[in-house]
């Protein structure tokens, strides 16, 4: 008979050790991420089978205005065995613990892939006037693990979330990723990754090299240069930038756990900063997290050059996937978000759908008030 799972708070070091023992986990589930989200109360929890730590989660508690009750949020987590066909044995002790901590609801994002589409399929979908969303395109793969997780969560009373709200922090359900290993798990070569890109991407990488664009791996002192360009990008592309202090806190928190976990990249042309990015890696998973580019000198293709440098660095570090993070589901050629999708599709990777975020209301009256609060915030925005 299998020893039943128990759950209790764990130390930061125990949490770090569990993450380190896995091939990869989301950086949003590392204990260091709690320092980045300091406005949320945080807790590391661990699942034990007997005395063995077999799973972990970073819980962020966000207080509901005027009420001492909390949304307990586990972004892109927890880090448990999602292939288990008895997820209730994992989730029941977590829910009981969080309820005792004053949670009126639990929100989590199972890090489980449900569907995949090739770059060619996404490109064809954008070109097809009858296709409006990625879901309209038959996927290259529907995963059994993904289907099993979704079926079990429905049975256990969890509710899949579709609306986005600032309070929820909503992580993207659709990402674009470049596999860095082949179907047999063997590392791909730089040449193989390059050949997988479309002609425009390969041409732009060559153009940047010929123009003399130099890409360098920076350090904490380069965050100010990144941020100045990022604010310029925000003004041009009409989004609200995060303050420099946010990136300094992120760098300090993640670098403290692993010196190679977070990187600042800078692409310069004749001394001018033309592109800059922030990359993150946990185990075999590497992410492109934030990017900035200058309006001037766009013809030297600094953005392509810095992405290629990041991919090569991820390959050298033994990463299995290079993750360009979120894309919207829209494939409507007239949608302004399509330009970002087309930029990412050019890398020759694949569009990946995850299980998304799921809520379990523990106090239905407060949860309903919470949903109304989010709806009002959305209307004001």
From TrEMBL:
Domain of life of the organism encoding this protein: Bacteria
Statement: the UniProt record of this protein carries the keyword DNA damage: no
The entry's keywords: Acyltransferase, Cell shape, Cell wall biogenesis/degradation, Peptidoglycan synthesis, Transferase
Gene3D superfamilies (UniProt xref): 3.40.630.30
Ubl conjugation in keyword set: no
Family: Belongs to the FemABX family.
Protein's name in the database: Aminoacyltransferase
Organism name: Nocardioides pinisoli
């Amino acid at each position: 008979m299998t020893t039943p799972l128990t759950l209790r708070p764990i130390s930061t070091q125990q949490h770090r050790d569990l993450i380190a023992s896995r091939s990869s986990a989301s950086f949003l589930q590392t204990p260091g991420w709690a320092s980045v989200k300091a406005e949320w109360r945080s807790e590391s929890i661990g699942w034990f089978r007997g005395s063995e730590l077999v799973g972990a989660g970073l819980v962020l508690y966000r207080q509901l205005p005027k009420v001492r009750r909390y949304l307990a949020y586990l972004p892109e987590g927890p880090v448990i065995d999602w292939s288990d066909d008895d997820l209730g044995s994992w989730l029941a002790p977590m829910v009981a613990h969080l309820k005792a901590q004053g949670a009126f609801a639990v929100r989590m994002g199972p890090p489980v892939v449900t569907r995949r589409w090739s770059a060619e399929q996404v490109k064809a979908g954008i070109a097809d006037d009858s296709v409006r969303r990625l879901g309209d395109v038959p996927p290259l793969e529907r995963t059994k693990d993904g289907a099993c997780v979704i079926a079990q969560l429905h049975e256990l009373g969890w509710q899949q979330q579709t609306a986005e709200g600032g309070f929820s922090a909503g992580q993207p359900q659709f990402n674009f990723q470049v596999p860095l290993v082949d179907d047999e798990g063997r590392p791909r070569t730089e040449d193989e990754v390059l050949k997988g890109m479309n002609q425009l991407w390969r041409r732009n990488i060559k153009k940047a090299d010929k123009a003399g664009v130099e890409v360098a791996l920076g350090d904490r002192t380069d965050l100010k240069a990144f941020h100045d360009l990022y604010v310029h990008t925000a003004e041009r592309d009409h989004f609200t930038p995060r303050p420099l202090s946010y990136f300094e806190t992120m760098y300090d928190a993640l670098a403290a756990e692993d010196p190679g976990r977070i990187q600042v990249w800078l692409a310069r042309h004749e001394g001018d900063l033309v592109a800059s990015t922030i990359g993150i890696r946990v185990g075999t998973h590497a992410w492109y997290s934030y990017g900035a580019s200058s309006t001037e000198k766009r013809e030297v293709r600094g953005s392509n050059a810095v992405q290629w440098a990041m991919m090569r660095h991820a390959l050298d570090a033994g990463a299995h996937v290079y993750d360009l993070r979120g894309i919207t589901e829209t494939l409507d050629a007239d949608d302004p978000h399509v330009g970002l999708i087309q930029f990412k599709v050019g890398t020759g990777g694949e569009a990946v759908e995850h299980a998304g975020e799921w809520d379990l209301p523990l106090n239905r009256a407060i949860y309903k008030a919470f949903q109304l609060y989010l709806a009002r915030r959305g209307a004001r925005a």
